[in-house]
Structure formats: C-alpha cells, structure tokens
Amino acid sequence: MARASKRTKTAAASRTFPQLKKSRSGIAGFDEITDGGLPAGRPTIVCGGPGCGKTMFAMEFLILGATEFGEPGVLMTFEETGDEMSRNVESLGFNLQSLVDKKKLFLDYVRIEPSEIQETGEYDLEGLFIRLQHAVESVGAKRVVLDTVEAIFSGFANEGMLRAEIRRLFRWLKDRSLTTVVTAERGEGTTLTRYGLEEYVSDCVVSLDHRVNDQISTRRMRIVKYRGSSHGTDEYPFLIDQKGFSVLPLSSIRLEHKVSKDRISSGIKDLDAMLEGRGFFKGSSILVSGTSGSGKSTVAAHFANEACRRGKRVLYIAFEESSAQVTRNMRSVGINLDQYIKKGLLEFRAWRPTQHGLEMHLLRIHELVDKFNPQVVIVDPITNLISANLNEVHAMLMRLLDFLKDRLITAMFTTLTANRGAEEQTEVGISSLTDTWILLRDLELNGERNRCLYVLKSRGMAHSNQIREFVLSRNGVRLLPAYVGFGTVYTGSARLAQEARERAESLREQQQLEEKRKEFSVRRNVLESQIAALRSELSSGESEFARQTRQRNERQQRLALDREEMGKIRGVTRDSQSVNS
Amino acid sequence: MKAKPPKTQATGNATDVVLELRLYVAGQTPKSLIALKNLKKICEEHLQGRYRLHVIDLVETPQLARDDQILAIPTLVRNLPHPIRKIIGDLSDTQRVLVGLDVRSQAK
Q1: Backbone angles phi, psi at A288, to 5 degrees
Q2: Which of A122-126, A428-432, A576-580 has the highest mean pLDDT?
Q3: What local confidence, expressed as pLDDT, does residue B108 receive?
Q4: What is the pLDDT of residues A33-84, one digit of tens each?
Q5: Does residue B8 form part of some domain?
Q6: Strand order across the A476-481 sheet
Q7: Which one of A200, A207, A287, A458 is least enclosed by Cβ atoms within 10 Å?
C-alpha cells in the first residue's frame, strides 16, 4: 500500500520521466520494443499456443540473466524435467549444468502425476512455496521462470484453492522482487491464457503466436500489456534459430536517419556520369528494376566490384543463383569477384527465398550485417520474396531499408518487373521507399532485343534524363548515348543503320560538291579563253588604229613639206603659210 | 533417513507388508495438525504394527520438498511398498485414505 502510493506520487512529480525499473532480458530486440526489458521485480506472463516458443523465451531470459547480467535464476518446470530442459537449450550453446554447478541457476522439476494422488480433505500448495523459497535462497536468485505453472490445474481438483494459491504465488514473487516469467498456454475465446492467469498478473503480458501462411511459418510477438511503460503495440516477428530467440524491432517509427553527402560510385562510369558524375549517395537505397535478362545482376555486380575495389565491405545476398554461378557469369563481363571474396571484402550469401519466411530472411540479413559490418548490401533480387503476402513484403522491405539506412549502408536491390505493361510499377511498391531508381528496359526492334537504361529518379541530385543504350561487353558495361531523332530511340542495329545512313548522306553531298567544283572549273576555262580571244581582238584593233593614225600623220607631214616646197617655189612667207595651215 | 529395507516377502498381499509412510507438513499449521491427528487415528485403527511413520517438516528441511516431489501440504506418501502413492489433504476421509494407501480395512 505504502509502496503503491509512493509510486503514484513519484509518477505525478516527474511526468516526463516515468520510472519503472526494468530488467533486461538480453533477448535480441525484445529490450528495444519494451524500452528496456521486463518489469523488474514483477511477474510477466508469456502466453501462446503449443510450440510458439514460450519456453525458449523464458529460458533465454533466465540464462542470459545468469550469464550476462549477473542475476542468478530459478527455473521451475512443470512439464519437462531438468535433463530435458538442458538438452533443449544445449542446441543453442547453453550449458545448464555448468550454470547449476556454478550456483547461477537452480533447476526444480515439479512432477505432477494425477494418478498417484488421492485427495482427502483440505490442503494447500505450501510445498511449492517452500521449494521456490529454497531454490531462490540457494542461488540468491533475482529471476524466476515458472514453466508452465498452470500444469497444476491438471494435478489437483480443487480449482478454488488453486486460484487462491496462484494469486498468493504472484504476490509472493512480487514481495520478494523477483523478476518472473510465467509461461501459459493460450486460452480459447476471450482469455489470453487457458486458466485466465492474466487476471493475477497485471504488470506485463506478452503473447506469442506461430502461424503458417502459404506453407511458410512466421512467429510473432505482441506486448499485450505493460503497465506503467510505453511499449510497441505492433506484432513483431521473431525467430528461434541456432542463436536462440530474437525479435525484430525493425519498424522504427522515426524517420531520423543520418544522411551523408558522400558519394559512392556505381562502378559504371557512364552511369556515374548520369548521376552528376559522382554516383549514388552513400547510405542511400537504390532500386534496379527491369524485366528478366535486362542486366540487373550485372549492374549489381559492377557496384559490388567497384565498392570492393575501393576497399569497402560488401554483403551480396543472392536469391536466384549460387555464389559460384554469379562469379562465373560476371567474369564474362570482365568482373572478377572471386578475388574480393578471397580477400574477405565480399561476403556472398545465397539461399532460396522459399527457404524461410520473410522474417527469417530479414533476420538473417540482420545477423549478417551485424557480423560482417558491410558498407554496401546488395539483395538480388528482392522480387522472389513476394511469394508471400504483399503487405508483409512491403513492411519487411521498409524495415530492412530503415535498418540499413540507419547504419549508413548503401543498399542496392534488384527487382524483376513483369514483361511489358506497367514497368513503372514495381510489384513490391517499394519504389517510393528507395532513393534512386534505375530502370532497365528491353526494346524489341528490327528482330533484336536491346537493353536500355535510364535513371527514373534519384533524390537529391540533378540526374540525367536520358535513355541510354546499355551494352554488355567483355570489358563490362557501357552506356551509349542512344540515337535520338524524330522522337524515336534507335538502339542496336537500328542505331548502327541510322548512323550508316547518316554517313552515306554526307558522303553523297561531298561528291556532289566535288562535281560542281569540276563543272565550274571547266566553265571558267572556257570563259577565260573567251576573254583572251577578246583581248587579242581588242589589241589588234588598237594597233590598227595606231597604224592608221601614224599613216595619217605621215601623210600630213608630207603634205606640209610639199606645201613648203611649193611655197618656196611660189615665194610665200612663212608666217602667212603657218596661219593658213 | 531414506528407505528402510522392505520386507521382501509377499508384495502381492498388501496386508502382510509393512507400510513406510511419510507425512510432509510445513510447520505447525492447523491443517498439518489435523492431518497428523487423523493419520495417527487411522494407523492405530487399521494398520496396527504394519507401518512406519515419519513426519517431515519442510520448513526445517526444504530441500526434501524438491527431492520427494511435494507440492501440496499436507501430503502423505506411501514410499513402500511400490509404487509410490500420495494422499494430499488433511486425511479427514478415512475410507479414501485407506483406498489411497491400498490397504483393506481390517475393521470390515
């Protein structure tokens, strides 16, 4: 009572700072969605159907408490013996016996055998309390797991007494500030647990679920209730694998990714040129979509190759081909990925999309990213995951992108678009999630198929709007400027033909000019000879005229002489003669 | 303190076998006291000379609760002859106790 009133007081005093002591479970992801773990010193119910992983959750909580957080624990099982429990968790690499030997763990298997038991008169479950107390005291336990306490309902007939004892049990655990996980079978109908245990535990209820959709199973977790704490209310996929239990707290509601201005080359020079000459943004997501055989994987391989060449670590996840097949195929376009695999820069993982459910894929990618710490992640292709529910794929990819972006990992996904039709709609609808979208297209023309590439969008940069022809050669990918004329893109042989036509055209013009030139020179010769003829005519005219002039002068001189002679003869004075002449 | 050697003869005839009984209690609670009183009465009336009884207080020896798989208090365990039988409660119903211990009433 005093405790409760104190708590409300403090809560009122510091509204912005709700203080509920939490006990970290150590289970990957769980502490994130619960904002710190299970309520410390209080019981939590973990409920679910058979095989949903309740026990595994509880065991990990207990074992990690003992090994990681220095909190010894008590495991009280009602269904499996201590040996069975040990074997169950051995596969996860935990050695229960050594923890027991080190006094970090206390195992107590409560065997309930209804056929052995006869009831006569009144009783209670004090024995259970004595055992629990003894167990807690012998290791100084801070954590307790009761798996599955409701088994007592099958062992004893007096339900009223059992309920009273269970109520007392939870009170007892709380009073001793034991962080407890109580597992319970899922109930039918409205109750969460078969025996309505949630009635007694009001602090935290976690529901686990295991469903099969289209033959692929997915496990999900939901925090049904967590008194006094904020928590994610979604259903979170979780996994149980060799590493144990892990929850995917992936849908970070915030959009607060760090962004980088750094660029990372695509490995295709011509493509970089289309992206301001510098390539993608570091930490951005790139979608390469195209029909089958349009060269998506080649683009991805170029990117991987370039990143490795610059010493970056690349995680390449292939859903269609094995790593050997990809490396062999890429050698044909002059890319040697083997060398980077050997150097440890390129981590190749290939598995079938049908091998796991979506969550498992996601989680495996997570684990790989955590382990390998790449700067670039390539998933080729994501389309194959779409066998499952579309919404789920969308959600999963969003989570994956969020996760990668948060770590400034550049991600490239390839996706297969259906042949023809709406190429601008990727099936997954993730185009809106990605930053850069490169579209590869096939053009069928003149009896051949040619590849085209264009950048449909690229956030935050002035990318080229051109459609380029995408040519695969032994030396890798080249992007040729496609011939554009009359609103048509010519590619392949059509482009070559068009270019040849152009060359012929210009040659013909040149020839015509040459002819004209020759024609003209002939004509000039003719004219020039005509000019020469006229000139000679002119000069002969001139000389005739000069001769006649001279003859006339001579004649006149002679005439004058004659006249003088005559004058002398006649005796006429010179002066009068000169006046007359 | 465990299992005294059983009489090997005539296990099929329960009436000839000495019953090894343990009564588990947790302190001097009313239920425990009633159970002990009832048990003593039954033993005297029906099992004269054919039983050995230990009263075990789990408050003093809590580890026995785990070792002997005791959950309910009080619990009467017939350790011998085999198989083990458990009777829980304050033993107020004599007939049921006798059925539980698999002994026929001599009184009948």
Answers
A1: -115, 110
A2: A122-126
A3: 42
A4: 888 889 999 999 999 888 888 888 898 899 999 998 999 999 999 888 878 8
A5: no
A6: A346-350, A314-318, A376-380, A410-416, A285-290, A436-445, A448-458, A468-473, A476-481
A7: A200
pLDDT digits (tens, 9 = 90+) for A48-61: 888 888 888 898 89
Q: How far away is chain A from the Cα of B60, in angstroms, using its nearest Cα?
A: 10
In a domain, B73, yes or no: yes
The ipTM (two decimal places) reads: 0.82
Predicted confidence at residue A499, as pLDDT, reads: 81
Q: Count of domains in chain B?
A: 1
Q: Does B62 touch chain A (CB under 8 A)?
A: yes
Are A206 and A47 in contact by the 8 Å Cβ rule? The answer is yes
CA dist., res. A262 & res. A107, Å (int): 55
In whole angstroms, give the CA distance from residue A318 to residue A316.
6
Beta-carbon separation of B93 and A121 below 8 A: yes
**Cα separation, A438 vs A445, whole angstroms:** 22
pLDDT, residue A91, reads 78
CATH of the domain at B57: 3.40.30.10
Question: E strands within chain B?
Answer: 19-25, 51-57, 75-80, 85-88
Q: Which domain holds residue B23?
A: 19-106
User: Using one digit for the tens of pLDDT, what is the confidence trace for A275-302?
Assistant: 888 889 888 889 888 887 778 888 899 9
Cα B71 to Cα B62: distance, rounded to the nearest angstrom: 11
Instruction: Read off the tokens for A547.
Output: 């001769």
